Amino acid sequence: MKNKVILLILDGLGYSYARKLMGNLEGWVEAGDAKVWQGQSVLPSASGPCYASIHTGLTPQDHGVTSNYHQGRLENADIFSAVKAAGGTTGAVAHSFFSDYFQSSPFNHLRDMEVDDINRPIQHARFYTMTGENKAQPATPSDIDLFWQMSLVIQRHHPDYFLFHSCTLDSLGHNYGFDSIQIDKNCYTIDAALGDFIPRWQEQGYDVIITADHGQSARGHHGGTEAIMRDIPIYYFANPNHPVQGPAPDHVIHQTAIAPSILQRMGVAIPESMQSTPVWT
Ligand SMILES: [Zn+2]
Questions:
Q1: Which distant-in-sequence residues (6+ apart) come within 8 Å of 271 by Cβ?
Q2: How many whole angstroms from its chain centre is CA 67?
Q3: How many angstroms separate the CA atoms of 196 and 281, rounded?
Q4: Residue 102 forms beta bridges with which residues?
Q5: Binning pLDDT at 50, 70 and 90, where does residue 30 land?
Q6: Which of 47, 65, 76, 278 could bond 52 through an S-S bridge, CB–CB 3.0 to 4.6 Å?
Q7: Could you give the number of structural domains in the chain?
Q8: How far is the CA of 87 from the centre of ligand 1 (A)?
């Protein structure tokens, strides 16, 4: 692999909220140590469809995940299968939707919750389900615990591609709206943790990309066409030894370009089904 990549999906963190609340990420951008682009989610701007589009490079109209009610393994090539086909290794700490779409379906706790198996598409995986979530108990794992769990998997297995996904911000937004003190404080918590973890991951030889599946409105909704629902941040922290070349700062990166762009940056052959032009070298 030319480069190893970590992709972090912070569920629900829209572009405008990221740019005004994530002080560490923005500090590195201001200092010239990281880049940021605006991205645009597919439609519908809902979690499942966006997870599938980020990884397959296809629109929901093509990959078929048109809502969060979808269940079933996707047939299209995706980042995990492409990296594995190229002889690389993969890992994830994420919601079980990712296991259902890219690993095996239906999700089976005993088989799928913890995976270390080089024959599966996501070879080193830790999934959570958030079963029983409600307003009093959102059932999102601690983000700091997840960052450590991810660091542990990376230390043990050094996967070439690693997906991290956290639902915290999306869950709180649905419960309290995105214009809320709950969002302010939890963005601060995650941003502060990233201030410690990003340099650690970079030292381990990774590019770190931070994005969201979709945004969310002030009153806590998404799925539609409003800019606040579709506009997402795409931060890029390149391995300092291999600076990244990307598009102009005002170029809006469509969500379907993320998969082929990551594969191109990794030096992995891009599957024919991924038709969007890659943006990173
Ligand atoms: Zn989501």
A1: 57, 77, 81, 82
A2: 18
A3: 26
A4: none
A5: very high
A6: 65
A7: 1
A8: 30
- Which range marks the domain in which residue 198 is found? 4-266
**Separation of CA 241 and ligand 1 centre (Å):** 33
pLDDT digits (tens, 9 = 90+) for 75-114: 999 999 999 999 999 999 999 999 999 999 999 999 999 9
Contact 80, 96 (CB under 8 A): no
CB neighbour list of residue 113: distance below 8 Å, 6 or more residues apart: 96, 126, 127, 128
Question: Which domain CATH number covers 31?
Answer: 3.40.720.10
Answer whether residue 271 is part of any domain.
no
Asked if residue 162 belongs to a domain, the reply is yes
Q: Kindly state whether residue 35 falls inside one of the protein's structural domains.
A: yes
Structure tokens at 139: 């059932």
Q: How far is the CA of 213 from the centre of ligand 1 (A)?
A: 6
Q: Has residue 279 been placed in a domain? A: no
In single-letter form, the type of residue at position 278 comes to: P
